[in-house]
Amino acid sequence: MAIKQANMTVWHAGNKAPSKEARPGNQAGATVLQRRHALDAKRRRRGSTTEEKWVKMHEQLARELNAADEGKGFDVLFYGDSILESTRGTYLGAAWSEFRQVKEVWEEIFAGKPYSTHTLAISGDTVKKLLWRMKNGGVPMKREPRVAVVLIGTEDLVSPACADPITAPRTAAELRGLLVYMHRRMPGTQIVAMGVLPKGQTWPNTCTQAITEANERLQDYAERHKPWLTYVDVGDRFLTHQDDGQGHQEIVPSLLTQDTLNPSQYGIRIIAAELEPILDKLAAQKQGRLRKAIAHIKPRSKAERAAAKVVAQKERAVRNKRRRQEMSESQ
């Protein structure tokens, strides 16, 4: 399989080390941020930038997939960002101590299964980055997996951009495009799309509305494509459900690492436990049955396509109006 070289400058934004960067509410923020900047500068001097690490990680995953494709392939593939890369015990391909126990929990649950699993995730990936990877060596050429799990989107819904009303529908649209591409490339594969997880220290926060809306749109899409698509959302289990008196609740601290983004070993156990029975069932199904079920799906009607076009036009109009306002203000 030919592995195309990435345009590294495209993928730099959004790749952030999980527990080495300050987040809102982190009292040690300034010190941690200074350490992170110093570390990044040291890596750049050594020729080990985030961009280069991302490219090397992509090439490594493509080689792993290609090697398996020459044999029996994998029954279940996991695609995503740092949340799922942590199940490999790595961050951008390098061993990460904070993820060691995450990997152990993941292997405890899935290593003994009658189906084979493999994780193809890179920290910092957005939906577009993942789609690019899939188009450049990230999808099996010969042996389709029985199931593909996707957990992506948290890097698309970040503050302050997540407060923009267009962010959620845009991310949801990109997710739909990703799922459509996966289905076309792997028509015999059952796809499991997971909702974006809560993040931060309290809930709701700046990104709550965007995450909720994107998840609702994703769930609605999955409901209309049940023969090959399943939606799973475990976000509610990450919340305490105890009001602090000001309309907020905490995200259970023990379920996330220090960056308040990536699940800890306890958080990943919740995710794995939710996925386990679903994957057990889907991986046991014959792929031929799925192809027959898909054959009976009716394409969208002309009215549905027209309605979708109207929505896209409205969203485009909102974006253009906002750009004009920003340009007039800058002048």
Q: Which structural class matches the secondary elements?
A: alpha/beta
Taking all Cα atoms into account, the compactness measure Rg is 20 Å
State mean pLDDT (0 to 100 scale).
84
Q: Which range best describes the helical content: under 10%, 10-25%, 25-40%, 40-55%, 55-70% or over 70%?
A: 40-55%
Largest sheet: 5 strands, parallel
Taking pLDDT < 50 over at least 5 consecutive residues as the criterion, the unreliable ranges are 1-16, 18-30, 292-298
The count of strands amounts to: 9
Integer tally of domains: 2
From the spread of the alpha carbons, the general shape counts as globular
The order of strands across the largest sheet is 4-1-5-6-8
The CATH architecture of the largest domain can be named as 3-Layer(aba) Sandwich
CATH H-tier superfamily of the largest domain: SGNH hydrolase
CATH class of the largest domain: Alpha Beta
Quick overview of this protein structure:
The chain has ten helices and nine strands. The chain is an alpha/beta fold.
Q: Any chance you could write out the topology, listing elements then pairs?
A:
Blueprint: H1 29-45, H2 50-69, E1 76-80, H3 82-85, E2 90-91, E3 94-95, H4 100-110, E4 117-121, H5 127-135, E5 147-151, H6 167-185, E6 190-194, E7 202-203, H7 208-223, E8 229-232, E9 249-250, H8 265-284, H9 287-295, H10 302-330
Parallel strand pairs: 1-4, 1-5, 5-6, 6-8
Antiparallel strand pairs: 2-3, 7-9
Helix pairs in contact: 4-8, 5-6, 6-7
Protein name: G8176 protein
Domain SGNH hydrolase-type esterase: 78-244
Region (Disordered): 1-52, 305-331
